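Researcher: We plan to redesign the surface later, but first we want a full-length starting point. Tokens attached.
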């Protein structure tokens, strides 16, 4: 195309663009004749051999509108590419053809532009890492759990059930409409008046029961599910008193390979510290990421938000089918909601997720972080080994392209988080690669 195309652009969003390109009439006429020749070759026209019908006959028989429609379809891809090349536009994903005007022939597209992410001076970001310590009260709570686990049971005679007793019961629960939602022929229950399950007051209703006794009572259900009130029928099968062991060296030796109580307490401290440090690191990472997202300048096309909303709706639909046993749309109708209102509520969270994704991706680019194939191989090896005899089956699943891609994304995320934590804590990190945002010129 020797002459410049007539192209107009209009910004419709922060990174969304409407592009209109006009196809020169000379080219349209040429293509109309080509289309007419093709029709003549493929269709028998009365009075003419195939391929011999004049252009005027084809034009009269099929009409100019039909020929122009075919021309527009044939030239869409060519002139879209020519237009974005002429205007120096780099699209972010495929464009949509929104409108076709046949005379003069104009094609109108909407397309997304690549996101823009400015991290700011992210390498100067500093966040204090919270101290982690284990209190004596936390250790004592674990020791109490160990005592509870090693309680000795002694049959009870001559009295009713008391708090702390172990009860074996038959239990049935029915809604206001008589629908059964709970049934267990031998449930083990440690009587705890403060336990709110399966409904507040259930445990208190069992106090004083003796073996063989049956009670029926009604309770208000939490959140009105599965009904505002429910009727419970309980029969006490047997009753036992739980005798807790002393907190001494014998308990430590019963709990594991510990020579004494102090060794058990030290191991509890170590395990609690490990869990707390891991949780503290995860919380710290999220705080650092949020600080980084808050200071970054991010612009992105609306298509990314739509994709995130679609993913969130798919996840909600999956959960609705698993938990409510119905599609999401049916659940929304049942609860008086609409898809539109749900999408509006999800929009802020979808925006947050998109911004976070783009910022982390830009950190990976600026820091030169990537994932090698052998790293994915090693992760597959580690994950599959955990399944013992089923390792090969799991390996085959993990080797599928889509799962390798997910693992690669996960490994990259971990690398980015590790780097951000190191930066935020002021630790020595490698210089950004040449071309990175903070590379030395």
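Model: Full-length starting sequence:
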């Amino acid at each position: 195309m020797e002459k410049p195309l007539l192209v107009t652009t209009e910004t419709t969003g922060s990174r969304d663009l409407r592009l209109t390109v006009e196809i020169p009439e000379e080219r349209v006429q040429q293509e109309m004749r080509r289309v007419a020749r093709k029709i003549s070759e493929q269709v028998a026209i009365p009075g003419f051999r195939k391929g011999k019908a004049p252009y005027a006959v084809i034009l009269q028989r099929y009409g100019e509108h039909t020929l122009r429609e075919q021309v527009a379809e044939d030239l869409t891809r060519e002139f879209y590419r020519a237009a974005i090349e002429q205007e120096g536009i780099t699209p972010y994903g495929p464009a949509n053809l929104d409108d076709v005007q046949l005379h003069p022939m104009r094609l109108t597209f909407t397309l997304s532009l690549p996101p823009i992410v400015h991290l700011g001076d992210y390498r100067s970001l500093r966040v204090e890492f919270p101290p982690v310590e284990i209190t004596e009260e936390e250790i004592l709570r674990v020791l109490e759990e160990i005592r509870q686990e090693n309680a000795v049971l002694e049959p009870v005679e001559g009295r009713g059930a008391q708090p702390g007793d172990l009860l074996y019961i038959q239990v049935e629960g029915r809604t206001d409409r008589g629908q059964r939602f709970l049934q267990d022929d031998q449930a083990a229950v440690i009587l705890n008046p403060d336990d709110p399950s399966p409904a507040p007051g259930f445990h208190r209703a069992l106090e004083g029961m003796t073996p063989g006794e049956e009670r029926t009572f009604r309770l208000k259900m939490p959140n009105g599910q599965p009904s505002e009130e429910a009727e419970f029928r309980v029969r006490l099968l047997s009753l036992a008193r739980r005798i807790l062991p002393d907190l001494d060296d014998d308990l430590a030796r019963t709990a594991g390979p510990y020579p004494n109580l102090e060794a058990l307490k030290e191991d509890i401290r170590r395990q609690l510290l490990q869990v707390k440090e891991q949780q503290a690191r995860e919380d710290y990472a999220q705080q650092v990421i949020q600080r980084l997202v808050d200071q970054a300048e991010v612009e992105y096309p609306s298509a990314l938000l739509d994709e995130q909303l679609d993913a969130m709706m798919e996840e909600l639909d999956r959960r609705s089918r698993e938990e409510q046993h119905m599609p999401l749309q049916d659940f929304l109708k049942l609860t008086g909601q609409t898809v539109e209102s749900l999408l509006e509520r999800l929009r802020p969270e979808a925006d947050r997720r998109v911004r976070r994704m783009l910022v982390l991706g830009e950190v990976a680019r600026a820091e030169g972080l990537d994932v090698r194939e052998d790293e994915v191989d090693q992760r597959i090896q580690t994950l599959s080994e955990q399944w013992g005899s089923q390792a090969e089956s799991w390996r085959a699943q993990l080797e599928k392209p889509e799962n390798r891609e997910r693992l690669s994304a996960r490994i990259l995320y971990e690398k980015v988080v590790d780097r951000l934590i190191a930066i935020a804590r002021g630790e020595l990190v490698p210089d950004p690669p040449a071309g990175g945002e903070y590379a030395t010129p």
